[in-house]
């Protein structure tokens, strides 16, 4: 039964905000604690800035206001530093006076009308967060070739002592996982922070070493348990699945991943290269050294940006287009339904298709030490030809436009709006309460198929592969059939055990209990009956 919706006073709402700031509990936990609905809690947290303002304006008790505003809420320093990081991530120029002006704006938003952003405060802020003066002065957003040359000269020294299998690169990419060629015009260049299109995206984090070995990809969606994941342990499909409301990378997700990666690399000397995104924290790890690219040079210095991500997306879209084309002649299905489950499977399949040689070439192209005679990147061009043919089969659209529709898709929150930054602290907790995808197209119509029917279909697939002389697919189908047969054996054992238990109950009820005065005779009779039925159950003994 759903909780009764209660009418909350302003003080109740402020108490909820204060409790959230102190405990950092999820929406569900807060709803249980205060005995109200999750929707009410979510609305209160989203409106926290307006509620704080109203509370400060209307509360006649000045001391109460002062204690609350100076309490355990979002501190000016924290919000200002988050704003600073987002500005630097955009490579925008920033000055000391601008930081002071923004700090005053933040203080006003939080109700701290007596705050002074003095030069002394600015100097303490700079030292507290280890901000250099050159970072405050800013730099050009275009690629500086002098910086690139300087980085390439240092790169050999940075990589010294690390073998190729221990040199990794990590980066995120946004993916319009349902996008078809006919949607290219409306999706190209879309930031995708809200609205209908945002439901079409996921974020994929890739990590690969110079030898071409990929780590398990981290895939970030909008729901922890979409409907299509029912009966499936999604992490068994070769990905790590996470979720938040905007399907973006966050510092918390990255910290968790880096900690797990560090434990996995125990006993190895590993270096991991990544860009200076706000979601990439600077951590001191035991087995992994983090190396950050200079700002605004990843387009020329990061291996993943030099063909690996493009290769991955091209393979993904080939799988997507083949799926769509397979439905063209099926009159019973008007439109193929693409779910995040298929997106996950196509993600792992696409990574397996990437040649290790292609990855190594991208590392060397980025300036990493290696053989100069490894050759040119040819696989990307070959894939472009294949996707061009597939695109022309469905829509008269430029294949290049289709391949690059999400090339610059945002993968982290870079909003410079102060209220967005303040409200950001709750978004991660709220995501854990969204268990099902809101988009109705992500549901799966469940057709009940018995194991017997599945085995029959597997036999038909074997015949199909034989007729096509497709040895590779035949091998996969045989493996599939073997898995089904193993499942069948497990089911048979389970059913047998169930029957045995029922038989045992019948025996005990009909033979043992009536003959309680002569238990030995009754038990002997029961064991004879069990033997006659050829059931493999332990022989009954007198207790």
Note the main attributes of this structure:
single chain, 543 residues, alpha/beta, Nucleotidyltransferase, domain 5, 6-stranded mixed sheet, 7% strand
Tally of structural domains? 4
Look at the structure and name the CATH superfamily of the largest domain.
Answer: Ribonuclease H-like superfamily/Ribonuclease H
Q: Return the CATH architecture of the largest domain.
A: 2-Layer Sandwich
Distance between the termini: 47 Å
**E-strand count:** 6
H/E series:
HHHHHHHHHHEHEEEHEEHHHHHHHHHH
Shape: globular
On the 0 to 100 scale, the average pLDDT is 74
Kindly provide the radius of gyration, computed on alpha-carbon positions and rounded to a whole number of angstroms. Answer: 30 Å
CATH names the topology of the largest domain as Nucleotidyltransferase, domain 5
Which class of secondary structure composition applies to the elements? alpha/beta
- Main-sheet strand order equals 4-3-2-1-5-6
Unreliable spans are 60-74, 135-141, 183-188, 193-198, 426-434, 535-543
Beta-strand content: 5-15%
Major sheet: size, sense and barrel closure? 6 strands, mixed
How much helical structure, as a percent, in the residues? 40-55%
């Amino acid at each position: 039964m759903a909780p009764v919706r209660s009418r909350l006073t302003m003080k109740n709402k402020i108490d909820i905000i204060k409790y959230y700031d102190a405990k950092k509990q999820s929406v569900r936990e807060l709803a249980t604690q205060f005995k109200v609905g999750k929707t009410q809690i979510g609305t209160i947290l989203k409106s926290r800035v307006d509620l704080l303002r109203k509370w400060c304006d209307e509360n006649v008790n000045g001391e109460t206001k002062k204690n609350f505003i100076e309490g355990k809420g979002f501190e000016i320093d924290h919000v200002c530093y988050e704003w600073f990081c987002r500005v630097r991530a955009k490579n925008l120029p920033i000055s000391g006076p601008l930081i002071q002006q923004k700090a005053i704006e933040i203080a006003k938003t939080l109700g701290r009308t007596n705050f002074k952003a003095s030069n002394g405060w600015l100097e303490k802020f700079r030292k507290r967060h280890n901000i250099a003066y050159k970072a405050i002065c800013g730099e050009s957003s275009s690629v500086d070739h002098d910086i690139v040359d300087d980085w390439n000269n240092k790169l050999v020294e940075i990589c010294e002592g690390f073998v190729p299998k221990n040199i990794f690169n990590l980066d995120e990419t946004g993916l319009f996982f349902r996008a078809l060629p006919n949607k290219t015009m409306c999706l190209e260049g879309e930031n995708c922070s809200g609205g209908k299109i945002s439901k079409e995206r996921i974020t994929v984090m890739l990590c690969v070493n110079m030898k071409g070995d990929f780590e398990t990809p981290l895939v970030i969606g909008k729901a922890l348990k979409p409907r299509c994941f029912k009966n499936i342990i999604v992490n068994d499909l070769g990905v790590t699945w996470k979720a938040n409301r905007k399907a973006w990378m966050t510092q918390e997700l990255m910290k968790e991943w880096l900690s797990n990666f560090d434990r996995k690399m125990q006993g190895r000397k590993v270096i991991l290269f990544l860009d200076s995104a706000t979601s990439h924290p600077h951590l001191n790890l035991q087995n992994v050294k983090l190396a950050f690219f200079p700002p605004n040079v990843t387009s020329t210095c990061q291996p993943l940006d030099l063909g690996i991500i493009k290769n991955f997306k091209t393979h993904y879209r080939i799988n997507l287009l083949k799926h769509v084309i397979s439905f063209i002649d099926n009159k019973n299905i008007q439109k193929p339904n693409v779910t995040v489950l298929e997106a996950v499977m196509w993600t792992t399949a696409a990574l397996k298709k990437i040649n290790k040689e292609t990855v190594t070439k991208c590392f060397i192209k980025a300036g990493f030490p290696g053989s100069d005679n490894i050759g040119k990147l040819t696989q990307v061009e070959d894939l472009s030809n294949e996707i061009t043919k597939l695109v022309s089969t469905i829509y008269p659209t430029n294949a290049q436009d289709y391949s690059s529709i999400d090339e610059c898709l945002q993968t982290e929150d870079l909003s410079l709006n102060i209220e967005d930054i303040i409200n950001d602290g709750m978004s991660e907790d709220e995501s854990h309460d969204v268990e099902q995808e809101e988009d109705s197209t992500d549901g799966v119509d469940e057709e009940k198929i018995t194991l017997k029917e599945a085995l029959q279909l597997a036999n038909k697939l074997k015949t199909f592969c034989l007729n096509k002389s497709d040895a590779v697919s035949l091998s996969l189908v045989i493996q599939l059939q073997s898995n089904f047969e193993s499942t069948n054996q497990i089911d048979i054992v389970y059913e047998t055990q169930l029957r045995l238990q029922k038989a045992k109950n019948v025996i005990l009820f009909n033979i043992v209990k009536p003959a309680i005065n002569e238990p030995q005779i009754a038990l002997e009779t029961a064991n004879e009956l069990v033997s006659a039925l050829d059931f493999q159950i332990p022989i009954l003994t007198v207790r």
